[in-house]
Task: structure prediction
Amino acid sequence: MPARNESQWRATPPLQEGEWIDSRIYSDREIFEEENEKIFKHVWVPVCHESELPKPYDFRTTSIGREPVIICRGPDNQIRAFLNVCPHRGMLIERRPSGSFLEGQPSGNPTRITCMFHAWQFDLKGNCVYVAREKEGYQDRLCKENVGLRRLRCEVKFGGFVWVNLDDNPSVSLEDWASKPFQCLRQTLEEEPLEVFHYHKAVIGTNYKLWHDTNSEFYHDFMHYHNRVTGFNDAYFARKNEAFDHGHVVVGTFEVNYANYEGFESRAELSFPHLPPNQWYMIDLFPGFNFNLRGSALRVDVVTPLGPDEVMIEFRGLGLKSDTPEERMTRINHHNSIWGPFGRNLHEDLIGVAGQGTTMRPGTEPRNILHGRQENQTIHDENGMRHYYDEWGRWMNRSPREPDKAYSPSQAVAAE
Amino acid sequence: MPSYSLETVLAVRETIYRATLALDDQRWEDWLALCSPDFHYAITSFSPEINKDMIYLQGDYKDMENMVRMLPKHNTDHSPLHRHTSVYTVDIADDGRSAEALSSVVFFQNMLDGTNSHIDSGESRLFLLGRYIDTLKVEDGIAMFVKREVRLDNRRLDKGSHWPL
Ligand code: FES
Ligand SMILES: [Fe+2]
Result:
């Protein structure tokens, strides 16, 4: 077809319902606010890894939606999560990204979580243990027992990741939420402790779902020279995209030929436990968390949406805690070669979604975004995104194709 | 102070500044010509988030040569980098044949792509801050890199880069 005029451009594509969506879901402010309320406050979020707080009294801060969260390891070795908000006048209790409560702070004692503002103190279970001039100010009207921290649902699971849910009564347990997609790698990730060796973040002018889409569709391997030369063969094209309940997707494995990229090497010698050499699995969890295992290194992406057109992506790289220094160095090199901030693939992926973000700024005209490739649910099929948006529609009670209308199950997904 | 010192210091500074210009101009071969065959390159950072020293990229001479040779195969942000390097200290070994140099370096991106080039192109943005921690060998009055560590302050790297820093 030649270039189209406006009505041709806006016309319904010759695809079934569910095979395209409206770009407003990537750009509309009202939808974004609703996603924070309806989705991010109710899902399990892998906020960090247990190896980031290895010792009792270690802490790590993060946020979910707009809510600040603190993760602490107690003297009993239990990892717990609280809102990082002081019950007195709302100060952010801990300002640093990580540290240890074994150190005293200018306003307070060691072994306690102290709010610097008026020196209220909490123990590592979130109990308030000290209110400055308590009796003088509150007499018998309010006491320590009334002002504990807000505790959050928190579990360590699926390879030592720390999962937090802002909802006290999540609709499903973490086990039921993610055990099926994790099935393919569970033994591998749980055989022995893992350790984070890489952290960096990117703030990109795009919608968080566009990042997740890129992690869920492999058709874009055409833009990665590395993936074309190390991947494109019959086994690659036979890889399956498998959809799971709750909007998750797993992309099945095959053997990658790393040595086909000049100067790169096979990762066979450092495969994660229970895996044949050079396998590549991808677990995409709704609404924006990604576990990507390529032979010798695990990468985990966590999105924090900052606006309809802005997302922070945190990137972690993990190896085995038992690695020798030489093994660890090799894993780091493998990780960095394509996934590091100066690696060959990640830069390309980020340019891709930044470009989408540019065409889908808030206020741009609504356009059709096509998710209609059908290839027997193999690697370049876009069923992963179709499955995701069907789930998104359900959570939001909006049709991804006509976001002003209520959700109804998509025909394309039902047929799959 | 031995008499060769000042000359050697100047040679070291000259090499660091020439490398800065070659990298800014994307004259990769000219940059590599300033590196010795046993050269080792690394981009590192410390993350207080995970409390770890990290390596973001590393390689030997061959790896770097390979990396720049493969650049045309890859999709890369077109915005050129502009480095501002200041050599702070140069310490010459007693035999005068090697040196360690510490420089402060700031990387700006002169936007060509930006997010929307119509709006962003032509603008310069601060990209990264760090230090060059260099080891050089000096022969016949010429200094060559044996080792370069680009020690970044940043962990937020946004789109990152395909180029050596
Ligand atoms: S706001 Fe925390 S003690 Fe007052
Ligand atoms: Fe990619």
Observations:
- The domain at 5-152 of chain B is CATH 3.10.450.50 (Nuclear Transport Factor 2; Chain: A,).
